[in-house]
Amino acid sequence: MKEQIIAKAYAKSAILLGKEEKVDIAEELTIFMEMMNKSTDLDNLLFMDVFTPIEKMSVLCSVLDKSGFSNLTNKFLKFLLEEKRFGIFPMIFKEVIIIDDDNKGFMRGVIQGRSAEADKDFTEKIVKYLEGKIGKEVRLDYEQSDSITAGYKVTVEDLQLDASLDKQLDEFKQSILGE
Q: Which of 41, 67, 132, 158 has the greatest number of CB atoms lying within 10 Å of its CB?
């Protein structure tokens, strides 16, 4: 929980500094995250304690020099590494994206279901429902999940709607057992 609070503070600071310097830090951090996801070597180097801080900084500087990122993004990533906070970078990145989406007037979420793709009518209905409830534009991505027998689970930030068969069976079981 403490790391989540720290990550949120770093994310807010990064967004505010980005606004001041007119840098889309969310976009640049997204590109950096994609670079790490594509290169397991870079990911391992930055997150494993096998390498010295000097080795990590040397490689990070080399990557950043070739990236074309703004001075703000470069300083931010180097600062995280220097302060031994790079381990929470994925949490910081997630918070940056949430704040950036909120500033742009929408929220992201996920629909999970058993089938290969979501039912379009259901998706349209749930988006309209959520937009009415939240008061913002909602963008939902679909994820296939083997843990859902039938139906859907929808998650938008801390709001979760569970219209799955598994949930209904659990509720039925609880009503029979009289809990």
A: 67
What are the pLDDT digits (tens) for 71-86?
888 999 899 888 888 8
pLDDT tens, residue by residue, 136-174: 888 888 888 878 778 788 888 777 878 778 787 788 888
Integer Cα distance of 107 and 141 in angstroms: 11
Domains and CATH numbers, the chain: 2-101 (1.10.520), 105-177 (3.40.30)
Whole-model pTM? 0.67
Strands laid side by side in the 137-144 sheet: 137-144, 106-113, 151-156, 159-164
DSSP string, 103-125: HTTEEEEEEEESSSS--HHHHHH
Residues 109, 138 contacting (CB under 8 angstroms): yes
Surface-to-core class of residue 166, CB atoms within 10 Å of its CB (0-12 exposed, 13-18 middle, 19+ buried) = middle
